[in-house]
Design goal:
Layout: H1 18-25, H2 37-55, H3 88-98, H4 108-111, H5 113-125, H6 134-138, H7 146-150, H8 157-169, H9 176-192
């Protein structure tokens, strides 16, 4: 499924392994295990699609406030791992959830493949208000509110993209990044033999506030 992950030209050659993915997923037993077989396959396809896109290549409304996750001096919390975990307000809660100090050592996300996948799955499974968890969207457990419906946010792969990077990619018509994510999703759905379902893009969805 990940055809070129071990190519010589790949900077992460040998890093993203099946065993590391399974070991990390075992820490999140709901992932890929809720609903019908088709729902489970679509969730895995969506995860692989979003992480494939992200690996190609504290603001004022941060959870618990902008000062809840102070930076460790000299540390930089830029994007790392399959879902490009970024910012200290993500590294702090993710580290607490998986039992490692990512504020002190954010490079673990780039050097330990199990930690890397765990951070991606933490982001996937954890709601960050006002956004639902991606897992809830993927498994049909999220129902859009009236405000969501008015903003065009309906269940589907498009809302997942909105959760991950809606502020930059959603709500302004065609976007090449959104199209790239959809392309990956269709490929993985085809491999797994499952339909794509509805609402694949977020071109006309307002980002979550």
């Amino acid at each position: 499924m990940l055809l070129h992950r071990n190519d010589r030209a790949c900077q992460a050659k040998g890093f993203y392994t099946y065993d590391a993915f399974i070991a990390a997923a075992n820490s999140f037993p709901g992932f890929g295990a809720i609903g019908s077989a088709d729902v489970q396959k679509r969730e895995v396809a969506a995860f692989l699609a979003q992480t494939s896109h992200e690996t190609t290549g504290g603001w004022a409304t941060a959870p618990d406030g902008p000062y809840s996750w102070p930076c460790t001096p000299g540390k930089k919390y830029y994007g790392r791992g399959p879902i490009q975990l970024s910012h200290n307000y993500n590294y702090g809660p993710a580290g607490l959830a998986i039992g490692v100090d990512l504020l002190e050592n954010p490079d673990l996300v780039a050097s330990d493949p199990i930690v890397a996948f765990k951070t991606a799955l933490w982001f996937w499974m954890t709601p960050q208000a006002p956004k639902p968890s991606i897992h809830a969207v993927s498994t049909g457990q999220w129902s859009p509110s009236a405000a969501d419906a008015a903003a065009g946010r309906m269940p589907g792969f498009g809302v997942i993209t909105n959760i991950i990077n809606g502020g930059l990619e959603c709500g302004h018509g065609q976007d090449s990044h959104v199209a790239d994510r959809i392309g990956f999703y269709k490929r993985y759905c085809d491999i797994l033999g499952v339909g794509y379902d509805d609402n694949l893009d977020c071109y006309n969805q307002k980002p979550f506030s």
